[in-house]
Amino acid sequence: MANRGTEIERFASWVEDLMRERGYDIDSPRGGGRTRLAEDAGVHRAAVTRLLQRQSMPDLETMRGLARVLGVGLRDMLIRSGRASESELPLPGAGREEPAAGGRGRVTPEEAAALLGIPGSHRRQFVEMTEMILTVSGAVEGGQRRRGTGASGRSV
């Protein structure tokens, strides 16, 4: 297992890269990027500063706020920080057996809507848009739909 200093260095470097990619100016002394990030994330500026100065890892609530504004999952934050491993936070469906021959091993648009918590009032739109994207992208063939039945009553 890596020592704590190495974990902080790797994690802080990753967060810095994300900050730059998202337009937070952390390189100029008066850029205000750290302050703006802390405000956007709803966390203390000192927590951001301590991380970027490689002094300490953020707590769970700080990671949650940073993940939200940096556009990454809390799972990724926890794994990258060394607070959890991939085996401790498996992805949904991880460890499932592969589907029978010919199966794609993917969830249907309806299942995805349910997993994502899409409200019933928007579910049909979500399913139809997802079906269209899958067809246009070539992820499924034009006439071929995925297993199951979508909210629209059509096979997906």
Tell me what the structure shows.
It contains 7 helices and no strands. The N and C termini lie far apart (44 Å). Helix 2 (33-41) crosses helix 4 (60-70). It is mainly α and 156 residues long. The longest helix is centred in the N-terminal third of the chain and has 18 residues, at 4-21. The protein has helices at residues 4-21, 33-41, 45-52, 60-70, 74-81, 109-116, 120-137. It is 51% helix and 0% strand.
Our estimate of the beta-strand percent is under 5%
Q: How large is the count of helical segments?
A: 7
* Gyration radius, rounded: 21 Å
Query: Major sheet: size, sense and barrel closure?
Result: none
What is the end-to-end distance?
44 Å
Number of strands: 0
Low-confidence stretches: 99-104, 143-156
* Structural class by secondary-structure content: mainly alpha
Q: Give the topology string: H per helix, E per strand.
A: HHHHHHH
Helical content, roughly? 40-55%
Query: Shape, please?
Result: elongated
> Quick check: average pLDDT?
80
What features would you highlight for this structure?
7 helices, elongated, disordered C terminus, mainly alpha, 156 residues, 0% strand, 51% helix
Provide a quick synopsis of the model.
By secondary structure, the protein is mostly helical.
Helix-strand blueprint:
Layout (H helix, E strand, L loop, with lengths): L3 H18 L11 H9 L3 H8 L7 H11 L3 H8 L27 H8 L3 H18 L19
